[in-house]
Amino acid sequence: MQNIKVGAPEVILSWLARHTPPDMPIEEADNRISAFSVQKGNCSIFGTPLDVGGVVVLHKNPCLGKDVGQYRNLTLVCVLAERIVNEPDLSVARSLLAGQKIEQKTIKAKNMLRKFRNFTIL
Fold first, then answer.
1. Is residue 17 part of a domain?
2. What is this structure's pTM?
């Protein structure tokens, strides 16, 4: 029997499949696994690889009601990106961003998510 080396993305996919919050609809649980695959295991904001302890599922628009868990409304981010997006205080969000390498597309992505939350854009 051949040993199969399990890389980080497979470990995270397995973790996502086994650790579904009890109140999460099945469709949303499946959609977050699909989002992880499409994002190739990377944070949608910074593009950095996600790890088991640092995968956060964000609802792009948290105000969609029953449609909030649909695939088109989910994105996976790292803990830092989640904190920046969900921080209502602009000065705190900017301080969290300080020292991070950011590209223009990263700024646009963060600002789109902040806009849905009615927060000041960075």
1. yes
2. 0.83
